[in-house]
Write a structure and sequence with these properties.
Hypothetical upf0131 protein ytfp, two-stranded antiparallel sheet, globular, 3 helices, single chain, alpha+beta, 23% helix
């Protein structure tokens, strides 16, 4: 099992069910050293899927005082492959980060 930190649409159990076929177990947590921002998404299929043209994004600052609240979601390796495909139209990439709880989690953020 692995962890994914969600600060956006993946927090929604309905998005989890439509993407992965089930709601994911998880717990509230914080992403340390990042700030919440937004991005515009131009892929019409992704906008239709999520219902939003503006999506949350995070950017690393390295400052411990900067924190983003969200959920640490427990996922399988197969789930990660599905989530990679889900996040691809918004040009997100998956990176490793340490959460406030000490968990090592994958985080999706806009690719540079």
């Amino acid at each position: 099992m692995a962890w994914v930190f969600s600060y956006g649409t993946l927090r929604d159990p309905e998005v989890q069910r439509s993407t992965l076929g089930r709601a994911l177990p998880g717990a509230e947590d914080e992403l340390v050293g990042y700030q919440l921002t937004t991005i515009g998404v131009t892929d019409p299929a992704f906008v239709a899927l999520t219902g939003k043209a503006v999506h949350a994004n995070v950017r690393p600052t390295g400052l411990p005082a900067h924190r983003v609240r969200g959920l640490a979601l427990e996922v399988t390796e197969s789930d990660l492959a599905t989530l990679d495909r889900y996040e691809a139209p918004a040009h997100y990439e998956r990176v490793r980060a340490t959460l406030a709880s000490g968990k090592e989690a994958w985080v999706y953020l806009r690719a540079r």
